[in-house]
């Protein structure tokens, strides 16, 4: 009986090795381990055996059964792996075809620039203030030391709505409004970005609507060297550490002394080239020490308080920084233009 | 202001400064040099020649064969100019000369006749056509005075001059004169200013015996002086003067006119020369014009005047529009023998009015408008008389007939060293300040650190401490100021909640796939009121229109961002950029007045336009055109990000598709709309199916808190039920949703539509809506019974409210 079991095992293992698909393998399993199979038969005949022989043959039968079961399992896994590999092969795709696009929008270039300027000045302790675009003559001009008959405020240069209301020509009125809000006894440290309007015919360098960012700091003991220091810090952070600044005297009715700030030319590093018209410098912004009349009108005593103000044009800065060659691009909103500045 | 450096050298020693180095110093000290222009260049082999003979070319009518003495030789030159004649002193470019434009002079044969050089016009020497005197414009240049044969012409013709173009800010009108520039440059270079010669001899005749002056408008004309110069010879002005005028951009005319222009540029004081014999009387009366008085200016235009204009009259008729332009009747011409010379101070306002009304801005009016130096008015007259005597052979009458109410006083401004340093952040000493004042040639009284500066009248711009602060700072040098940071208190800079929310809204839009656009606030009147949101329309009485628009295109302030955004879509589509998703955050201008008297409300809105395909992935056959639900999804994403519960309802809005437009509400308040643009309107933009949305950002600013609140993550499982209803097709799903929400009880925490069906398996006029309901109690697990009870309540409610039944 023991010999018979051994023989069955050998026989089954050979058949398992020879099986070439899952079906053949299943036939081997049923053939040897099934209820009608030879091993079951052997076990059935165990009753005839002596008490000593019975456990020995029983154990052997179980060992044989286990050996065949394991061999079947191993072989089955081989077939399954093969089948899976076959299927995966069929599932292969062209990985070089384009992916399904995920559309992301992005900010307008002017917004990116204004945001960057805002964040730089916020870092220096400035708050961001806004004001109306339809402004009163008082705030747009008079509070900024431009009285009614001042030549710099020709009707021809502004879009008036009524005699007393106009489209603001700069964001400076927000400075006057903020000083008024702070009632002459509290320091003011603010920037005001926004849209402004001038009576210009739109062309490559003029736009009847454009953007301005102005800044104001009024406190006790504000010095002109502070203006230079703050603007220098801004210029280096915004345009690059290697850029130098210089201040030149200029004139604005609402500041005295007034300055214009140049930065060293990126292309020639100050040696002179066509970009900087051979001067080595590029004009970036205007500013100065707040005129005492402006302080007075806003309720600040110029004997106690002093301050500086500055203003810049994001369009001009964008044109310089990114080489945009026509100011109208900012307002045409050609998708191909807008998308160029979504990278950052 | 154009400044000839050769001319400037007459008043201040420029040392070894090159045009470039000087320009750089002037720019850094306060007057921007906007350009450097070179008259021409130093020319070699270009000399004075004397035409000894001039004969017709044997074979060419228009050519002459000349023999020209150039000092060391006599050259045969063939010349085509019509004005060449024997006995002229001319400019000869000899063989080997190279004229501007790299024009090389070579030996040549012209129609068989040998030519050894060229007789030149001023243009050929590089002088711009517009500055060439009229009588010399069409031919060769002829010297009108004695010159040395064979000498280099560069010096005679001022060819090596450099012209600085000064960009003057409105406060620096003092530099509208060569003397003013000389003071500026002298301060920079620490040099003295050499003043011009104002001396002359006089006859026995008194000016006051020949002419009387009466001023009837003293405020307009505080000083009027009339000088008389007799026996003048009208001829060309000396070459050097004509050269300087040309360099300054003024065309020479004759000696008398050129002298007044020369002094105008030299002193910054406009003068006017009348032909006394044609003046019409021996009295000068300055008065305001009477209404509709007419007068012919020297450009031969008839001007109609009014009482805002000041005129110089002969007691009867106007002879000049004060400070602006002289009259044709008494203009100096070739027959003029007695000159009545006006040196006056006219108030800027009256001159500005005349300039504006007649469109006549001139070198004179510009200076009067900005204010001339009182102390130079009469001196300019003397300077002109000096030149008239010298270059027009004039016999000058004694004295001046004048009316004088002019204020000649110098204003005092007190400065202290301490205050200067406080304001600049410097450590300038008393001595340095004194040196700076000396350089500026300002006189002062010093008491240790206190300076009382007597500001010269040429610097009308300096009236207060800060003006002197600027003078000190700029001569000290802005380059020498330190870089400091403010020493005041600490400030915490941050965005306001409103600004932070605005940035957040933009980020959501961009994350949703929209690009930001910025359009113009000013649009056409038609577009201004197009596609207004219902909440805006309720508030508007009339759009805000400019008083004097430049064009209809930008005449009226917008009440919606959409019309211009649609124009952007249209622009892009025309350029094959059809698939477009844009948003804008901007202001609309809402006035509740019919006639605008106060500032309109400025309200922030968010608007978007979607056109073309929303998604394309061609080889996967995915083509999703923009539709209503794409637009709605964007708005829903935004409001859900902001934690707002928003409901939508069908709406009818002018310019929108009547069946595909919804208004949306938060807590009963309309805060915007979405939908398809009406096909008719879309067509006017050449668009097919454009979808838009518009949202009231002001409402968000008021109601949204960006601070997130912590909500416990649920620890107990939620339970889910689906319900499919058959319902009349006209019932909006939103209404059913609202009914379910109300009926489902406190444990319902999410509810959404997951299927909509209409078709063959349902009766006509019916649709099926399927909803998913999820229930949750954060404190425990719900029982099936509880959920079942709610489910039954929902069924009962939708049946009674909408006649909905369970789908079989
Ligand atoms: Zn450069």
TrEMBL record, chain A:
GO terms for molecular function: ATP binding; catalytic activity, acting on a protein; magnesium ion binding; phenylalanine-tRNA ligase activity; transferase activity; tRNA binding. It holds the Pfam family tRNA-synt_2d. Its main location: cytoplasm. Keywords: Aminoacyl-tRNA synthetase, ATP-binding, Cytoplasm, Ligase, Magnesium, Metal-binding, Nucleotide-binding, Protein biosynthesis. Its cofactor is Mg(2+). It catalyses: tRNA(Phe) + L-phenylalanine + ATP = L-phenylalanyl-tRNA(Phe) + AMP + diphosphate + H(+). GO terms for biological process: phenylalanyl-tRNA aminoacylation. Tetramer of two alpha and two beta subunits. Belongs to the class-II aminoacyl-tRNA synthetase family. Phe-tRNA synthetase alpha subunit type 1 subfamily. Its EC number is 6.1.1.20. Binds 2 magnesium ions per tetramer. This is Phenylalanine--tRNA ligase alpha subunit. InterPro entries: aa-tRNA-synth_II, aa-tRNA-synth_II/BPL/LPL, Phe-tRNA-synth_IIc_asu, Phe-tRNA_ligase_II_N, Phe_tRNA_ligase_alpha1_bac, Phenylalanyl-tRNA_Synthase, tRNA-bd_arm. Mg(2+) binds at residue 256. Residues 109-320 form the Aminoacyl-transfer RNA synthetases class-II family profile domain.
TrEMBL record, chain B:
Keywords: Aminoacyl-tRNA synthetase, ATP-binding, Cytoplasm, Ligase, Magnesium, Metal-binding, Nucleotide-binding, Protein biosynthesis, RNA-binding, tRNA-binding. Its EC number is 6.1.1.20. Its main location: cytoplasm. NCBIfam families: pheT_bact (TIGR00472), YtpR (NF045760). One of its GO terms (biological process) is phenylalanyl-tRNA aminoacylation. This is Phenylalanine--tRNA ligase beta subunit. Mg(2+) binds at residues 461, 467, 470-471. It is found in: Cytoplasm. HAMAP family: Phe_tRNA_synth_beta1 (MF_00283). It is an enzyme of class 6 (ligase). It comes from Halolactibacillus halophilus. Residues 40-154 form the TRNA-binding domain. GO terms for molecular function: ATP binding; catalytic activity, acting on a protein; magnesium ion binding; phenylalanine-tRNA ligase activity; transferase activity; tRNA binding. Belongs to the phenylalanyl-tRNA synthetase beta subunit family. Type 1 subfamily.
């Amino acid at each position: 009986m023991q010999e018979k079991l051994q023989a069955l095992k050998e026989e089954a293992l050979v058949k398992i090795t020879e099986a070439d698909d899952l079906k053949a393998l299943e036939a081997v399993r049923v053939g040897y381990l099934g209820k009608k199979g030879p091993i079951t038969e052997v076990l059935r005949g165990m009753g005839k055996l002596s008490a000593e022989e019975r456990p020995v043959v029983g154990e052997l039968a179980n060992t044989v059964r286990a050996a065949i079961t394991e061999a079947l399992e191993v072989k089955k896994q081989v077939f399954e792996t093969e089948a899976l590999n076959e299927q995966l092969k069929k599932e292969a795709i062209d990985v070089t075809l384009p992916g399904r696009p995920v559309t992301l929008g992005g900010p307008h270039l002017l917004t990116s620039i204004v945001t960057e300027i805002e964040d730089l000045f916020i870092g220096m302790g400035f708050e961001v203030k806004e004001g109306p675009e339809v402004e009163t003559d008082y705030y747009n001009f008079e509070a900024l030391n431009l009285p009614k008959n001042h030549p710099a405020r020709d009707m021809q240069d502004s879009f008036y709505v009524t005699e007393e209301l106009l489209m603001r020509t700069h964001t400076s009125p927000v400075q006057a409004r903020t000083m008024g809000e702070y009632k002459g006894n509290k320091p003011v440290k603010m920037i005001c970005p926004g849209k402004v309007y001038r009576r210009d015919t739109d062309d490559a360098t003029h736009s009847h609507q454009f953007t301005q960012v102005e800044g104001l700091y009024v406190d006790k003991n504000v010095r002109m060297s502070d203006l230079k220091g703050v603007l220098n810090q801004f210029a280096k952070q915004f345009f690059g550490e290697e850029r130098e600044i210089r201040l030149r005297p200029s004139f604005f009715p609402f500041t005295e002394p007034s300055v214009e700030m140049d930065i060293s030319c990126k292309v020639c590093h100050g040696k002179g080239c066509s970009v900087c018209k051979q001067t080595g410098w590029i004009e970036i912004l205007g500013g100065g020490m707040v005129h005492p009349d402006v302080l007075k009108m806003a309720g600040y005593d110029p004997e106690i308080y002093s301050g500086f103000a500055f203003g810049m044009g994001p369009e001009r800065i964008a044109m310089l920084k990114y080489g945009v060659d026509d100011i109208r691009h900012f307002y045409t909103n050609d998708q191909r233009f807008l998308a160029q500045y979504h990278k950052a | 202001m154009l400044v000839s450096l050769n001319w400037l050298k007459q008043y201040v020693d420029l040392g070894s400064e090159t045009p470039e180095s000087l320009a750089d110093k002037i720019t850094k000290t306060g007057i921007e040099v906007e350009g450097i222009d070179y008259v021409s260049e130093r020319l070699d082999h270009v000399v004075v020649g004397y035409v000894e003979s001039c004969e017709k070319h044997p074979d060419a009518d228009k050519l002459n064969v000349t023999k020209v003495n150039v000092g060391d030789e006599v050259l045969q030159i063939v010349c085509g100019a019509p004005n060449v004649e024997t006995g002229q002193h001319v400019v000869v470019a000899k063989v080997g000369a190279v004229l501007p434009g790299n024009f090389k002079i070579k030996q040549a044969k012209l129609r068989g006749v040998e030519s050894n050089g060229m007789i030149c016009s001023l243009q050929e020497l590089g002088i711009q056509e517009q500055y060439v005197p009229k009588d010399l414009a069409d031919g060769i240049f002829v010297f009108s005075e004695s010159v040395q044969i064979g000498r280099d012409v560069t010096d005679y013709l001022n060819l090596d001059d450099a012209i600085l173009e000064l960009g003057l800010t409105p406060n620096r009108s003092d530099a509208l004169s060569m003397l003013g520039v000389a003071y500026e440059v002298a301060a920079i270079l620490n040099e003295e200013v050499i003043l011009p010669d104002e001396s002359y001899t006089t006859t026995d005749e008194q000016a006051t015996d020949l002419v009387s002056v009466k001023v009837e408008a003293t405020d307009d004309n505080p000083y009027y002086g009339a000088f008389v110069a007799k026996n003048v010879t009208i001829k060309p002005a000396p070459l050097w003067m004509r050269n300087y005028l040309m360099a300054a951009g003024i065309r020479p005319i004759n000696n008398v006119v050129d002298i007044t222009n020369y002094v105008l540029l030299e002193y910054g004081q406009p003068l006017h020369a009348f032909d006394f014999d044609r003046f019409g009387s021996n009295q000068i009366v300055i008065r305001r014009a009477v209404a509709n008085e007419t007068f012919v200016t020297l450009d031969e235009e008839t001007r109609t005047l009014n009482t805002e204009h000041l005129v110089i009259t002969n007691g009867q008729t106007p002879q000049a529009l004060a400070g602006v332009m002289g009259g044709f009747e008494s203009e100096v011409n070739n027959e003029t023998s007695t000159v009545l010379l006006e040196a006056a101070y006219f108030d800027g306002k009256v001159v500005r009015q005349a300039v504006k009304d007649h469109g006549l801005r001139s070198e004179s009016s510009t200076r009067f408008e900005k204010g001339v130096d009182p102390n130079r008015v009469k001196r300019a007259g003397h300077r002109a008389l000096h030149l008239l005597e010298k270059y027009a052979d004039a016999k000058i009458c004694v004295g001046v007939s004048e009316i004088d109410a002019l204020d000649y006083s110098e204003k005092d401004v007190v400065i202290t060293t301490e205050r200067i340093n406080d304001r600049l952040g410097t450590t300038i000493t008393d001595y340095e300040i004194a040196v700076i004042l000396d350089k500026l040639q300002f006189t002062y009284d010093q008491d240790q650190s206190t300076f009382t500066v007597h500001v010269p009248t040429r610097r009308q711009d300096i009236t207060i401490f800060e003006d002197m602060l600027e003078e000190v700072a700029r001569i000290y040098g802005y380059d020498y100021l330190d870089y400091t940071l403010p020493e005041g208190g600490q400030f915490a800079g941050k965005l306001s909640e409103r600004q932070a929310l605005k940035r957040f809204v933009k980020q959501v839009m961009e994350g949703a796939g929209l690009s930001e656009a910025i359009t113009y606030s000013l649009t056409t009147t038609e577009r201004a009121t197009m596609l207004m949101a219902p909440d805006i329309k309720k508030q508007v009485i009339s759009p805000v229109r400019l008083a004097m628009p430049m064009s209809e295109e930008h005449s009226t302030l917008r009440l919606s961002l959409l019309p211009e955004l649609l124009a952007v879509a249209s622009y892009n589509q025309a350029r094959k950029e059809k698939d477009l998703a844009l948003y804008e955050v901007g202001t609309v201008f809402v006035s509740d007045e019919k006639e605008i008297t106060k500032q309109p409300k400025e309200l922030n809105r968010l608007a978007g336009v979607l056109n073309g395909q929303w998604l394309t992935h061609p080889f996967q056959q995915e083509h999703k055109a923009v539709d209503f639900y794409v637009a709605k999804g964007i708005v829903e994403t935004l409001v859900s990000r902001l934690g707002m519960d928003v409901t939508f309802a069908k709406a009818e809005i002018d310019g929108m598709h009547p069946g595909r437009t919804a208004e949306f509400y938060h807590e009963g308040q309309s805060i915007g709309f979405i939908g398809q643009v009406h096909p008719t309107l879309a067509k006017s933009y050449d668009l097919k199916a454009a979808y838009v949305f518009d949202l009231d950002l002001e409402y968000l600013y008021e109601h949204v808190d960006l601070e997130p609140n912590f909500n416990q993550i649920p620890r107990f499982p939620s339970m889910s039920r689906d319900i499919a209803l058959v319902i009349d097709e006209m019932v909006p799903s939103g209404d059913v949703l609202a009914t379910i929400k109300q009926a489902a009880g406190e444990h319902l925490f999410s509810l959404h539509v997951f299927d909509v069906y209409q078709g063959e398996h349902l009766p006509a006029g019916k649709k099926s809506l399927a909803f998913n309901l999820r229930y949750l109690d954060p404190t425990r697990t719900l029982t099936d019974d509880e959920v079942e009870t709610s489910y039954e309540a929902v069924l009962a409610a939708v049946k009674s409210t909408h006649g909905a039944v369970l789908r079989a």
